[in-house]
Give the backbone structure.
Amino acid sequence: MKFGSKVVREEPDELTGAITTPVYMTTAYSFPKGEKYRYSREANPTVLELGRRIAEIEGGEMGVAFSSGMGAISTVLMTLLRPGLRLVVQRDMFGRSLKFCTNFLSSWGVKTQVADSAMDDLVSKVSSGADVVFVESVTNPLLRVVDLPLLAKVSAESSSKLVVDSTFATPVNQRPLEVGATVVLHSASKFIAGHNDVIAGLAAGKKDVMDQVDQMRRSLGTSLDPHAAYLVIRGMKTLKVRMDVIERNALTLAEFLESHPKVRKVYYPWLRSHPDYEVARRVLNGGGGVLSFEVRGDALTVMKSVRLITPAQTLGGVNSVISHPATMTHRGLSPEERKAAGIEDTLLRLSVGIEDVNDLMEDLDRALARA
């Protein structure tokens, strides 16, 4: 099946013939028949179906669902790492992910190295020795695009396990396991679920690795609620058609903002001005649904002046959302850390939805006039 059919197709329930996955709201299962599941923190039929689906879509042997994207990240990294091992991460990534690696994992005895945005620094640090490499294939919030085939090759040569957060790329635009990643991660709260109504995380990879990850999940308790799993499964069915509209809107808005007198700079992989444009065109199927831009003036005023677009700390839904990284997603970083990552106080991040693109342009133009 082609990708668009694969995400829509849902096998009828074996027990009842239901054409959508039932929500199994139960804590436990009666023995002996229920021995397969035992207790819903360990295994739940609805949640297991979501894990199966992300593995199928990403081309993995096994998938696991988690209570959040950070639950997926922390569980996977704590499975693959232990005190004394070496971890390489990017500087330009979600603030909470970076802090987890540099603060918690380092305090746990993991030797964490932070690479700059440039690909050569990342490759150099991995080549010098790493046990695990953790990157966002498209970074948050500056949309830097990792040359994933190259990084996978370098990681393999240095016997490093490559973990890729593919939330921004989505399986529509890139499937990291196909180019050699060990594990692919998603904050499923974002584009995969797509409606800003559920918190969830996903991971997929080879069965031997994911079995270990699943055992860690059971112990840490980063387990997903079955109703949340149902919502992600439902949202997943429209992923392809949503991304088709979102990406058309995003490119139109990126081009509009790039020519706007109140905008200093636009970050979007499908713009020729983007530093990783050539890499993006080679490794991605589309530019994605997020863009960032620096304003000439007060960014917070712009964010507070939109009417159709919602100011909020999220992304990936059908409705457009704008945020201010310095005071929202990356507020946990010091001013020096934000500056090193290239995150200016004038930067805004826009998650593009499926609204009429002309309405979105008018909303942004009106808000920028107040900057």
User: Anything to note?
Assistant: The chain is about 40% helix and 15% strand. The radius of gyration is 20 Å. The chain has a mean pLDDT of 96. Residues 239-258 form the longest helix (20 residues).
